[in-house]
Specification:
This protein has 123 residues and is of the alpha+beta class. The protein is built from three helices and nine strands. A hairpin with a 5-residue loop joins strand 2 and strand 3. It is globular.
């Protein structure tokens, strides 16, 4: 047998879904409570544009489409459309408060470059 034949077999794993941090889910819950509409879900999406090619977007939405992926945590739901999902697999959505202000951010391991503001990226 050759060395390649004796090499350990490495299994493949399903793609990791998008994660939601405790900070993000807490902020989403607070914003939904302030709106008084428990049907709201945070939708994260990717569009063309931005200084690096793609740009993250966030909006609150009541609607779920057939091809949406949902992530639930602490009683809130994150929604991603099928087109955006391919760019966001393995990402983590967080909520940060700092000198630059407060905002939702995406920590995306698929991004090869990002811009200084953190809202645009390329793959």
């Amino acid at each position: 047998m050759t060395a390649a034949e004796n090499a350990p077999v490495v299994g493949t794993h399903d793609a990791v879904a998008i994660a939601l941090t405790d900070n993000a889910s807490s902020k989403i819950l607070t914003l939904i409570q302030e709106e008084g509409n428990p049907e709201l879900k945070l939708r994260v999406f990717v569009t063309g544009g931005g200084c690096s090619g793609f740009q993250y977007g966030f909006t609150f939405d009541e609607t779920l489409n057939d091809d949406d992926t949902t992530v639930e945590k602490q009683g809130v739901t994150l929604v991603v459309d099928s087109l955006s999902y391919q760019y966001l697999v393995g990402s983590t959505v967080d909520y940060l408060e700092g000198l630059e202000g407060s905002r939702f951010v995406v920590n995306n391991p698929n991004a090869t470059t990002t811009c200084g503001c953190g809202s645009s990226f390329s793959i």
